[in-house]
């Protein structure tokens, strides 16, 4: 049987298995959703940005979600594709790991990608995909040996020729979903090497060797897992780490609109009014839970009926699940209003289920065996199958043992809190043995408050916060409104026994004690569940009146301030600490909020910040930490930071980058003393010279500190610091034995002599510098001989910036000769404003013919003219050229250069970005360029054409490019004369389904509004455009209606830029009013 026939059979079976998504709705009487139509892509990033494994993953991810908005986005379909950099070495990742918290969509993503492979739209480089979920591998008989072929045959018995598949050149992908559900240990240290797919071994040995690459080295592996389980995977075995971050705001809208149709946007608008609930919707499983409630009870979509807190959401979900499962089992139609009767008749089972949840939560157990269920008398699966998901899949071969878990971690936490409520409310019921409260099971009116106090004490002791949500649910269940929903379980609610005022008072009291800031913040969320808003409202009033900085806040009020700041929609770029600090403990209480910001600013010696180490605790890893206007009195205080960092192991490396503006001597003392060795980026800002004069004594201290063996600075930035040749000499000396790999000396007074002295260190065999920037140093042709040694060194030199050295041009041909040297590894060369002429281009092109490393070339604002570009193009047309970025703005080009450039576009397999702005190309030149853009082999992704004297005359050709070029994603046409007529022609291409454009910039094109209708009509059917920029045109209020339609109906648009147009205040208000219910943001 041929490989192609085997592949066809396999795809047919996978199509059957993965054509629908597993949704919990299918266990609540619903139908399984189509994978193709109902899957909503979550935000996927490359690298690890989320919570560490030792924290409560749901809460930590929730608190830090906005912080991670700067992550490098990667498309799910591209996780096994090489990035442009990797493609240079023809390298694709072999082992990819995707991590994500519970309910974030890991299994849904694997299902969608398998379905996409079957349909031929993704992962086309693989001939076979074999999903092997860890939860099913864990059910294999203990001690039983398998070879790889027999293991695969157990899962895919319809394929009888595994030896043929595994010995053929076919590429295989193994998908191991759910490492956190694995019941055996992946021991990479003691597991023996196993290279034969025909020799038997334990399943764990086969898995480990597939990951290592010893078994089937050409096969790829995809592993998904919750964060805490990844510690067993050696870092060197992972080629790419990705993380599912959940839903961004526009993805939440997409989910609800797909699930609930026309009601989706109304639901999103209502959820935004309950900020905590809306933020929790970053978890797809939580979105599903909310959708189930609203889908089954449409009346709740009305604002007055929407759930008001987290506990109410879960309570209504619980009731719906029980009612619909009862209807399914007994055949009688019941409404949500009949839920209490169902709860009453099934109270014993629900109590046992809640006790299972509680006991598991206390010992942090999330997976339960059939024996566990039996011990809790949970043998009737029908009632709770909407609440507990069976891990076993359909048609999974010979394995029959089953394991169970709650559908989401938060559901288990809710049931644990429900167990406490039942135990406190119903006489002679289960007692909480682990809490050792005597009155449980007695129906004592104070039992719930006593249990709450004990649970609160246990929760605030937890360093990981694993009881935080449990405590929130317990507070919410104490409310009379939620207890009335559960009367079938609890009996009649007695108003006189309401203990919530006592609980509120107790939380206020405990907030004034010395607690962890994160636990304090959770107590504020508990107050929100109890509907006590007094602390938060006081802080909001102080912020509204601007009187916060003049008030002395209590510790509890500081925690409330942290809560207000965390739940606000403020920009998270800079957090200015000073206005919020009025007591010594204030900064510590604000630390959970500080972790969300990209930069922290502290402006002066504040009398209440007695412990500056608190500032470091607040500083997130990899963020900027700025101490501005420091006086000498701070020097001794800040010296504590170095000792603190050295003594506290978990803070190592936290102080990643520090910028000091006014006291560099203190900077040197603090950050390079013998006790502090964590700084990686040392930067003196470019505007430093305005404030201070750095004498030689300060520089001497700096050089000494940088030479210290304790110093681990990797990036040294001394831009615009008036450095003289003598300073360059000292820098050269320290480079001979330093970890510095990036050196920025832009805009100093080094000159040729400074470069010569610097090269003495750079040429050392022990020098680590790979990136050198010496722009604006008044260099001449004499320095090029010295710079040549930088290019031809055996060390890896990947980046050289010589911008704004106007007298260097005559020496550049000598420098260019280094590009053809076999040692040259340069990837980026910056030569803006260097007086380069066509004659220089001849030398540059000659050496590029044999260069295999240069990927980015920046030649803006030189004198290349058309002849120079023609010479460059002769090198770029070579099949071995790897250049993917070419910037030629302002190089005195005309339409004559467009022919050679078009030829490059037709033949180059690497050029992905071309910038031709501020050249006189005109319509004739653009038409010629379009021929290359329409070529089948064109791979260009970004084309920048600012101020190129283009008119509507070339727009028909551009429209043809948009409709046929499948790679072009960014088109910038700023400052041309397209006018409305030209945009109308462009719209003909935008409306085509084949158009792949994602960013279109039409600034300064004298657009008056007629084009808005064309854009609306075109983009309503477009599924690709993400950013549309119409800034600096002549749009008026007459365009508002069309722009509103554009924003509403173009589902892919995320940003519409309309700055500096002619809108009235009323028109701007109309446009901004749309944002509340839209995916797109409108910037005016």
TrEMBL record:
One Pfam family from the record: WHD_NOD2
A Gene Ontology term for the protein's cellular component: cytoplasm
UniProt main location, coarse: cytoplasm
Subcellular location: Cytoplasm
InterPro entries, per the entry: Leu-rich_rpt, LRR_dom_sf, NACHT_NTPase, NLR, NLRP_HD2, NOD1/2_WH, P-loop_NTPase
Domain NACHT: 94-229
Residues forming coiled coils: none
Keywords: ATP-binding, Cytoplasm, Leucine-rich repeat, Nucleotide-binding, Repeat
SMART domains found in the cross-reference section: LRR_RI
Protein name from the UniProt record: NACHT domain-containing protein
């Amino acid at each position: 049987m041929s490989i192609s026939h085997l592949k066809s059979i396999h795809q047919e079976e996978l199509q059957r298995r993965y054509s629908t998504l597993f949704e919990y709705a299918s266990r609540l009487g619903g139908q399984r959703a189509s994978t193709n139509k109902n899957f909503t892509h979550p935000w996927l990033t490359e690298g690890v940005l989320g919570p560490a494994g030792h924290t409560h993953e749901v809460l930590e991810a929730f608190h830090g979600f906005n912080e991670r908005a700067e992550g490098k986005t990667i498309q799910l379909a591209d996780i096994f594709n090489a990035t442009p950099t990797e493609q240079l070495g023809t390298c694709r990742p072999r082992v990819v790991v995707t991590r994500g918290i519970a309910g974030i969509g890991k299994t849904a993503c694997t299902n969608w990608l398998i379905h996409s492979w079957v349909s031929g739209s993704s992962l086309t480089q693989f001939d076979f995909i074999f999903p092997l979920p860890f939860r099913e591998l864990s059910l294999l008989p203990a001690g039983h040996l398998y070879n790889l072929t027999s293991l695969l045959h157990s899962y895919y018995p319809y394929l009888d020729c595994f030896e043929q598949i595994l010995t053929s050149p076919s590429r295989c992908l193994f998908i191991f979903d759910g490492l956190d559900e694995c019941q055996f240990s992946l021991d990479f240290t003691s597991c023996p090497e196993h290279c034969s797919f025909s020799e038997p071994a334990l399943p764990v040995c086969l898995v480990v060797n597939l990951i290592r690459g010893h078994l089937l080295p050409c096969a790829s592996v995809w592993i998904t897992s919750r964060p805490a389980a990844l510690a067993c995977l050696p870092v060197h075995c992972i080629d790419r780490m990705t993380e599912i971050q959940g839903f961004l705001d526009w993805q939440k809208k997409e989910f609800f609109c797909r699930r609930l149709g026309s009601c989706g946007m109304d639901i999103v608008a209502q959820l935004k009014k309950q900020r905590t609930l809306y933020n929790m919707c970053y978890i797809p499983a939580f979105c599903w839970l909310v959708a189930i409630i609203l889908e089954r009870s449409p009346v709740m979509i009305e604002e007055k009926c929407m759930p008001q807190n987290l506990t109410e959401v879960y309570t209504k979900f619980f009731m719906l699940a029980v009612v619909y499962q009862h209807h399914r089992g007994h055949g009688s139609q019941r409404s949500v209003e009949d839920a209490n009767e169902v709860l009453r008749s099934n109270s014993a089972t629900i109590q046992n289920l809640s006790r299972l949840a509680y006991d598991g939560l206390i010992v942090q157990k999330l997976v339960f065996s059939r024996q566990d269920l039996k011990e809790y008398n949970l043998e009737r699966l029908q009632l709770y199958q909407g609440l507990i998901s069976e891990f076993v899949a359909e048609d999974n071969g010979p394995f029959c043992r089953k394991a169970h878990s709650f559908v989401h971690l938060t559901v288990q936490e809710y049931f644990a809190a429900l167990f406490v409520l039942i135990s406190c409310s119903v006489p002679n019921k289960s007692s909480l043995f682990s809490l050792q409260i005597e009155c449980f099971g007695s129906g004592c009116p104070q039992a719930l408050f006593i249990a709450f106090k004990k649970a609160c004490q246990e929760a605030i002791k937890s360093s990981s916060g694993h009881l935080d949500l449990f405590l929130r649910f317990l507070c919410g269940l104490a409310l009379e409104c939620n207890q009335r929903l559960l009367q079938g379980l609890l009996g009649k609610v007695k108003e006189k026994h309401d203990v919530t005022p006592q609980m509120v008072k107790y939380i206020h009291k405990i907030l004034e004690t010395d607690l962890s800031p994160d636990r304090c913040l959770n107590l504020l969320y508990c107050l929100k569940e109890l509907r006590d808003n007094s602390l938060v409202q006081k802080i909001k009033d102080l912020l509204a009146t601007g009187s916060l900085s003049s008030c002395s806040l209590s510790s509890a009020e500081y925690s409330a301030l942290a809560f207000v700041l965390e739940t606000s929609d403020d920009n998270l770029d800079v957090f200015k600490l000073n206005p919020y600090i009025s007591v010594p403990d204030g900064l510590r209480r604000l630390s959970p909020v500080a972790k969300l910001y990209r930069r922290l600013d502290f402006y002066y010696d504040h009398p209440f910040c007695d412990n500056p180490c608190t500032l470091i605790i607040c500083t997130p890893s990899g963020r900027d930490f700025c101490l501005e206007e420091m006086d000498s009195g701070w020097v001794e205080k800040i010296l504590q930071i170095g000792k603190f960092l050295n003594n506290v192991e978990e803070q190592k490396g936290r102080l990643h980058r520090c910028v000091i503006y006014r006291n560099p001597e203190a900077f040197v003392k603090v950050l390079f003393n013998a006790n502090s060795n964590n700084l990686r980026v040392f930067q003196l800002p470019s505007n430093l010279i305005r404030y201070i004069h750095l004498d030689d004594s300060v520089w001497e201290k700096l050089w000494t500190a940088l030479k210290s063996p304790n110093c681990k600075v990797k990036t040294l930035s001394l831009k615009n610091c008036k450095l003289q040749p003598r300073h360059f000499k000292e820098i050269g000396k320290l480079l001979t034995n330093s970890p510095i790999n990036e050196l920025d000396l832009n805009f100093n007074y080094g000159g040729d002599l400074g470069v010569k002295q610097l090269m003495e260190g750079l040429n050392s065999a022990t020098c680590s510098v790979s990136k050198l920037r010496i722009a604006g140093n008044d260099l001449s042709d004499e320095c090029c001989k010295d710079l040549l040694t930088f290019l031809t060194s055996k060390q890896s030199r990947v980046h050289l910036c010589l911008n704004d050295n106007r007298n260097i041009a005559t020496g550049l041909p000598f420098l260019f000769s280094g590009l053809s040297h076999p040692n040259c590894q340069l990837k980026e060369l910056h030569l803006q404003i260097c007086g380069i002429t066509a004659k220089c281009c001849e030398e540059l092109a000659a050496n590029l013919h044999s260069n295999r490393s240069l990927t980015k070339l920046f030649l803006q604002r030189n004198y290349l003219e058309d002849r120079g570009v023609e010479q460059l193009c002769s090198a770029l047309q070579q099949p071995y050229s790897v250049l993917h970025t070419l910037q030629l703005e302002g190089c005195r080009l005309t339409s004559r250069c467009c022919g050679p450039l078009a030829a490059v576009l037709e033949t180059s397999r690497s050029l992905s970005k071309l910038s031709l702005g501020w050249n006189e190309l005109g319509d004739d030149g653009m038409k010629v360029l379009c021929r290359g853009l329409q070529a089948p082999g064109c791979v260009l992704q970004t084309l920048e054409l600012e101020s190129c004297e283009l008119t509507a005359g070339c727009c028909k050709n551009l429209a043809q490019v948009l409709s046929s070029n499948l790679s072009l994603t960014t088109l910038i046409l700023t400052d041309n004369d397209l006018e409305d007529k030209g945009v109308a022609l462009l719209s003909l291409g935008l409306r085509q389904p084949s158009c792949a454009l994602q960013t279109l910039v039409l600034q300064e094109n004298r657009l008056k509004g007629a084009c808005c209708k064309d854009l609306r009509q075109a983009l309503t059917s477009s599924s690709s455009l993400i950013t549309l920029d119409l800034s600096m045109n002549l749009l008026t209020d007459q365009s508002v209606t069309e722009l509103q339609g554009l924003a509403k109906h173009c589902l892919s648009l995320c940003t519409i830029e309309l700055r500096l147009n002619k809108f009235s205040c009323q028109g701007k208000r109309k446009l901004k009013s749309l944002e509340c219910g839209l995916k797109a943001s409108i910037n005016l």
